[in-house]
Specification:
This protein is of the alpha+beta class. 22% of the residues lie in helices and 21% in strands. The longest helix is centred in the N-terminal third of the chain and has 15 residues. Its EC number is 4.2.99.18.
Length: 261
Amino acid sequence: MPEGDTVWRATKRLHQALAGKVLVKSDFRVPALATTDLSGETVVEVVPRGKHLLMRISNGVTIHSHLRMEGSWHLYRPGERWKGGPDYQVRAVLGTDAWTAVGYRLPVLELVATDAENTVVGHLGPDILSPTFDRTQAIANLAADPDRTISEALLDQRNLAGIGNFYRVEVCFLLGLHPWKPVSQVDLGAAVDLSRRLMKANLQNAAQVTTGVNRPGQRSWVFERAGKPCRRCRTTILTAHLGQPPQDRVTFWCPHCQPEN
């Protein structure tokens, strides 16, 4: 699932291409929006909210989308071949004179009144990449359930918005936290600060990197490295599922660097 930094980069590209421009094409390919036409309206801005993407339009509506596991937005010049997937996977097409934005495989795509955006993102905790990130509130949210595992707490978007499985796994490794360690035994400020620092460092990267080495196979410490030796101690990286379907996540950890007790 795309995490906050991925959504931040997507919204930045969309904002640069579309903000202040008039839509000359509007094509929504989901039943609930099939008759909606935003042609003639102006894109005011495109902003992220955690893992959510909000495209605000001049008529007072916001196009709300969430990428989840497979969704993506692509930008094309007029006449350029679309390469994001087959046509049947297209969910939205929004065009200006200079750009066409195509949304592929969007599991969440809806229109809401801009002044009612809280109905779709109001449940989220502080956005970890926001310039006005409320660190104190985020820590308080995490601490509210002291018996919960740190992994579950960091992934819960109601506590703080933007962290996904990649950063959760890597932060736990870098802080020496066993994935099932209870919140009450964790320096929550350190976990929040490291998560924010890593994500901000990757805002300009096309890839997510925590090792400082932006090369294939060397970008992560433990994420997706099950069965391989720990980069620090050479102990074999373990893997297991966290939670229950459909919300389960695969976790990775080093049993030596991240002891259970």
